[in-house]
Every structure is written in C-alpha cells, then in structure tokens.
Amino acid sequence: MNKSDTLNETGISAPVRRVDAMEKLTGKARYISDYPFEGLLHARLLRSDRPRAKILGIEVPDLPAGYSYVDARDIPAGGRNGIRMITDDWPVFARDEVRFVGETLGLVVGPDREKVLEILSGIRVTYEELEPAFTIEEGLACKGGPIVGDDNLYGTYHLTKGDPEAAFRRAARVVEGTYRTGFQEHLYLEPQGMVGTWEDGKITLYASAQCPFYIRKSVAHTLGIPEPAVRVRQVTTGGAFGGKEHFPDVIATVLSVAVNKIRRPIRLVFERAEDIRFTCKRHPSRVTIRTALDEAGAIIGMDIDTVINAGGYTSSSLIVLQRAILHGIGVYNIPNVHIRGRAVATNTFPSDAFRGFGAPQGLFAIELHMSHLARELGMDPGSFKQKYFIKTGDTTITNTAMKDEIRLNEMFRKVDAMSGYRRKVKAYDDDPLKGIGIAFVNHGCGFTGNGEQEIIKAVAEMERLSDGRAALYVSTVEMGQGLQTVLRKIAARELDCGVDNIVYDNPDTDRVPDSGPTVASRSTMVVGYLVQQCARELKRRWGEGPGTRVRKQYRHPEGLTWDQDTLQGDAYPSYGWGVNVVEVAFDPVTYEVKTTGIWTVYDVGVPMDTRIVTGQAAGGGIQALGYAAMEVCEVVDGRFRQHTLTDYTIPTAMDFPSVACEFVENPYAYGPFGAKGAGELVFDAAAPAYADAVGHLIGRKIHEIPVTPEKIMEVLQDE
Amino acid sequence: MNEFNFTLNGKAVTYRGDPLKRLLDVLREDFGLTGAKEGCGEGECGACAALLDGAMVNTCLVPVGVVAGREVTTIEGIAGTKEGQDIIEALADAGAVQCGFCTPGMVVAAASLLRGNPRPTETEIREAISGNLCRCTGYDMIVSGIRAAAKRGRRSW
Ligand code: FES
Ligand code: FES
After folding, report:
1. Closest residue (by CA) to atom 2 of ligand 2?
2. Which residues contact A653 (CB under 8 A, 6 or more apart)?
C-alpha cells in the first residue's frame, strides 16, 4: 500500500480536509437535478387541497399523446397501496378519504414541464368535506370524530421509576409547567428529488436520500416484488436532517408505480414552496411537568405528560415518541418519576424525523422546567441542575444502571471557563439588558433499545482492490455531515494508509450490504465500528491479494438488556453528552433581543475529526437557535401558512454570532477509536438554553418556542 | 425566439431561444453548467448566484434577455481563476463545506466581496454572504474560510 500521507503521525481527531470539499466548491459535484437522462419525463403530484374529506371523484381530462396520469389502479397485482415505513398506514395514493392537505392523489407525467402543469390544473377533484382537527388539543378531543381508532392516538407509553404517587402524596409543594414547541421545517437547501428509471429490467431510483434500503423496502412492498428487484442509488445529497429519512419513500413509491407503467426515466423534484408545504416537519409537542418538592425544596418526584402532534398517518411517530420520553428527564437522577407519552392523530401533514427525533422536544421541556424550578427556589439554573446530575450507576428512567462514564461536572467547569456563566448569571440578575441561559443534555446514540441488534443488524464490508487501494461497502450516506471523510479516516488509520487510498462511493443497494439507515447518530459509532473491524481484518489478510473481501455484522455490546414491550432496560448502547450556554441582550437601539454568545462543550467519546464535529456543533447550534427564535410554522385551515423563504425564515450569517465549541474526551469501548454519535446531540441544548436566557433577560418564564419578538412582547404585557 | 450574444466565463457565446427563460435554466440546460443550484427559485437563498459584469446576481431572477452583450461568470468560471482557486482552497481548509448545495453560491459571494473589498472585517463578510443561506454549517467556517482567502489572495486581489 501507498504509505504516503499516513494518519498515524497525528491523532485520529486531527482534522483532515474533507474528501468531498473540492468537488462541491468547484460546482462539479452532481446532485439529482444535475444528472442528464436520455428521454427524461417530468412528473408532478396531484395533491389533495382539503385537510379531511371523502373523495367523491377525480376527473382527468383526455391526455395528449405521451402524457400519463398514474394512480392506485396502476399498482400491479400483488402490490399494496401503502408506504412501508414502520407500518404501512400511509397510502401511496389516497384511498377514499384524505387526511391532510397535500396527500397524494395521483401523478401526471410527460415530456414538457409546462404541459404537465397545465394538465394538472385541468383535473377536477370533488370532495365531501369532513370536520378536521389540527392542534394537539383538537386531536385529543377527537374533533370531527377520531381519525384513527376510537381515541385518535397512534400509541401511548408509560415509564415509571420508583413510587411517584407516594412522592406526590408526601410533597410539601408541587410546581407545574407546560412547555410547547412548534413545527420545524428541515429546509435542507436542496429540495426533495428523485429520478426513477427502468434499467436492465429493473426499477432503479436515483435519490437524494438518507436511507437507500428504506426506499428499496418500501418500493418492493408497494410493487409486490422482492427487494433485490429494486435498485436504489444515492446521489450527492444537499442536506437532509431527517427530512430525507422516510419522506423519500413517499416519492419513491409513487415514482416506481409510474416507472413500472411507463418504463421511461421520470424526474420528480420539488420546488421550494412545494417542499415546505408538502413534506414532513418536526413534531409539535406539549409537555406538562409536575414536580414534587419536599420541605427543603429538594425534588422528590416528577410527573410528565408528553403529547406530540403526529398528523395524518403514523410514519415514525411512535419511535419519535419513545425517544421523546426516554429523554424526558434529561441528564438528571430523579428518584420517582412517571412519564406518559402519547402520539395524537390530526389532519396536518404527517410529522416525522428531524435531527434529534423527539429528544429535542423532551429535553426542551425538562431543561426549561429545571430552570424555572431553580428560579422559584432562588438558585441559578446551572448550580441547581448540577445538584441532580445523573452519575454512573444511578438508576435510569428505564430502571437500569446508567453505564456511561459521565463527565458533566467537568463539562460544566469548561463551559463556565469559556462563557463566564456563573459570574454572569448573578451579575445579569440586576442588568435589565442582559440574560444568560444554560442547558445540559444527553442523546442516546443508535437505535432505541436493542433495535440495532433486532431490527437493523448492520453489515459492513471492505475489499482489497487491484490497484492497492481498499474499498468500503456500507449503506450509510454522506449528506453533508462528513460521513465519508470520517469512515475513510477510520479505515485508513487501521490500514495505515492515506485517506485517499480508501474508496467510498455513494451507496448503491446492488453493490453494498445493508448497514442500516443514516439516522439516529449511529453512523460513526455503529457503522464506523464495523468499518474499523473490517479494516483490522483486511489488514491481517492483506497478503491474500486483490479481491480479498471481509464482512462484519453488528453485535450488541455485552451486558445490555432491553424489553421493547415495557421499554425497560438499557435504552441506548451509549449517550453523547452536552452543555450549551447562550447569552442574549436587548439591543438598546431597536430593543430587539440579540444573541451575543454561544458556548458549547460536548462529550462525543473521541471526535473522529475535531473540525467536522465542530462544524456539526456550529450548524446544529444555529439550526436549533432558528427553531428557538425565528422559525415560525403555523397551520391555518390545514395549510402551513409560511411556505416561502421570505416567511419561513431560517438564520442567515447575520442572525447569530459564532459558536464556540470544546470537547471532553471520553472514549467509548464499542465505538471506533472511542467515538460516539454527534450529529443530533449538537441540536438538543441550544433551544432550551436560548429560552432560559430570554427568560433571564426579561425576568419572566418562557414556556414556548419559537420565542419571537412578538412572543416576548406578549409575555411582557401579560403581567 | 430570439438570438443574442454574451460572454460566458470569458468566452463569446450565442443564445437562441426565449429571452424570458431564467438565466439559471439557460446556464444549467443550454450550457450544461450545473454548478449554480436551485435552492428556492425566488431570489432568497443565493444557491444560484453568478456574477453579471462582476456583480453578484441570483440567476433564478434574471431573464436571460438581460445578459445580452454582457459578461456572465459562473462558479465554473471562477474556479478556473487564481482568485477563485484561493477562495476554494481556503474554504476547503476551513471546513466550510458540508452538504455543498450552498457552496458554489458562497464562492461566488466571496469572489464578489473580495473583488471590491480585499480586506473585509468579519461583519463585512457576514453581510456579504447574508443573501446566501446555508442550513448545514451555521456559517462560522464559511466566514473564517473567506477571511483566510483574503489573506491567501492578498497579492492577487
Ligand atoms: S435559487 Fe435563486 S436565490 Fe434561491
Ligand atoms: S453546506 Fe449545506 S447548505 Fe451550506
């Protein structure tokens, strides 16, 4: 092997130039819209414009030659009109009823984009309208009659630790608060897009997506064909954040039905307004926390009621809900706890995965609540929270010993040294123009419980190539987070070669094994570990010559237990840990709230590249501050009111200052070189820290995000 | 139908077609230059940015008829210049690239800034890219990359 540019001269965390940087900087990287296809047809979805209605009829005018209308009747015998996600309740084409604005009714396909639009506008759909439910409250009240079951709930979970009832019985005082978060749009800069073709007798999809094997599974299910009869090729993906986890299944299934019928390449790329209006968002949440305090003001129990707005179909809402409640008491050891979690059906677009996957909602509530408790008890939130930090060996909310080695105290010291938190939190009590907030979080890495072992069963392979390089075969994708650089670094370090000697191509389900989806902060920790093991074995067997191929399958770390029915045991193989401090000030001229400092410290085990993880911390932090301060997304008559970049505003380079980031090293035994997950952890803390800071600034409690200037005025005028 | 000439990345070219077609589509479809991306199609994200007579424009808002007789420089053109290389190298080293969809537009914005202001402050850099949205990076590494490009290119700007 070529030993130039060896990484062994420096630590694994030392930054390298990302392998995809130059092609992206020069405009050479090709995204889905950049590929030419011979005889390409354009497609556009026909969507419902009613939130809840019976479909009485769809009248399609006569189509000119070369144009097609595709709907459920085109699903082949043996196929199913359901999108296989966790369940398949979401139909590919609406059945007799629509449950939300934007539900797919059909697809118009043809050679000319304008003509396709013209045909679309000539289609008449008649409905019998039903009374819709949009909010969590309307959903819980079964407004208009239940959408699912008899209670409108996709699922309910309970977690109990200790004896919360007894704790509340002996409480000297009970403090209660209700915390709300809104929809958030991913706003990946590249809108959803896919091209379906018929190649070598097989449906082939080129996709901007996170999970090629999810797409393969859902398409096979819809067409009623074996999974290997579908080929999915991921192309350079312009951001995803969870928005390209399951939603591409929605496009892929429709597109595949059309390709199966027409046997020509068909492109379905969303325009921006379409993308904001008609794709999944982060679940809105309402969390009520009641805390029992004893005479001395110590927390003796908590009762938490969590509801998320799941929208018209299940998608992955139950798993999101599990994560929300499993992170429901955050980084604290509370002796007696009961949490109830419910996912409610409404007539909004189905909510789905978004960076953090329920954890940000659960953590927002507990962090703000702890800050509010601190203020009630006359303490600063940082010191108060520190008293309750969970320690190694303490009992978790799922009644097992916390196995992580926890460095929260050290992280608090570090962030204090960076930000001056302890000094400022006192000083700003008397400063009407300044406020400072703090939030501590953890984030379970990998699938919940034993999901990695029971559901995903990840496999990775490596091969010695004939040119002396080594190829990496995994299904996890590069979507901007730096995965391909990190995986190559891991392999290169084991093989003692340069990053350039490791070949990684965008996953193609015909060529790579299923190493699982690119989600849940699992790619570095779980797949990276498999890559490391592959590379080790390949190194041992290098002498066997070109073509030597090694394969490794996931094995759950020893000593972990999990019962998925009761949600008891080790909820995650390990956790990333973080603390954020956010400082805000009133602009003395405009009287607007400005963020003046953001300091973050993370324990991600060992960072696989400090620059890449710092980039995640900056990007995740700013995305979370957008969520906390700016990104308003309201539903009016079942439609997202904000649907352009003018009214759904995400942070620009002018809105926030730079994000300071430091790490605490804490190697994890089952991660490559000690790495744990990082991609979601960096989203979790900034929103509650911001809300805490604004509360400190104005001397009032904040209960809801986004905390827009209007919201601040409202809170100020309320008293 | 219409026919006119303009300069594209330093070469004289002829366009035949609808003068109302968006410059973005003309670049991508008629000239195969797919470096400019469509992030919004409404002038809000900067992913489609190019230089028109040296000034940054959002090509999704420019009807191609407007560029008749003028000079258009895309990311592909910028990447071929010494200034462009300085920016690209500096951004690559700074870690300014994640998903990359905003990236060509950011390079265009940086080139446009540094041509007029070779020693920008952090605030000036942030202002100069404030019309370019990035959802991945939080902007910090883009800002530090542009600052490094200014240093690196001090001779050429
Ligand atoms: S695509 Fe032109 S500004 Fe967004
Ligand atoms: S790098 Fe993804 S939008 Fe900027």
Report:
1. B99
2. B125, B126, B127, B129, B130, B132, B134, B139, B142, B143
Whole-number Å distance between alpha carbons of A288 and A180: 9
A657-696, pLDDT tens digit by residue? 999 999 999 999 999 999 999 999 999 999 999 999 999 9
Q: Give per-residue pLDDT as tens, A437-486.
A: 999 999 999 999 999 999 999 999 999 999 999 999 999 999 999 999 99
User: pLDDT (tens digit, 9 = 90+) per residue, A138-188?
Assistant: 999 999 999 999 999 999 999 999 999 999 999 999 999 999 999 999 999
Test site for ligand 2: of B37, B38, B99, most ligand atoms within 8 A of the Cβ:
B99
How close B68 comes to chain A (CA, Å)? 24
Q: Of B32, B60, B77, which closes a domain?
A: B77
Element (H, E) at A255: helix A247-262
Domains, chain A, in order of start with CATH, read 7-30+451-553 (3.30.365.10), 33-130+186-277 (3.30.365.10), 285-448+568-718 (3.30.365.10)
Distance from the A482 Cα atom to the nearest Cα atom in chain B, whole angstroms: 7
When divided into structural domains, chain B yields a total of 2
Give CA–CA dist A45/B134, Å, rounded: 28
pLDDT score of A97 more than 80:
yes
A-chain CB neighbours of B91 within 8 Å are: 21, 25
Does B92 share its domain with B129?
Answer: yes
Question: Cβ–Cβ contacts within 10 Å for residue A292, how many?
Answer: 24
User: For residue A624, what is the nearest residue in chain B, using CA coordinates?
Assistant: B138
Assess whether B116 and B146 both reside in one domain: yes
Provide residues with CB under 6 Å of ligand 1. B 38-41, 43-48, 58, 60
- Per the structure, the complete domain to which residue B72 belongs is given by 3-77
Chain B residues with CB-CB distance to A31 below 8 A: 37, 101
Residues B7 and B70 grouped into a single domain: yes
Helix H or strand E encompassing B23: helix B23-25
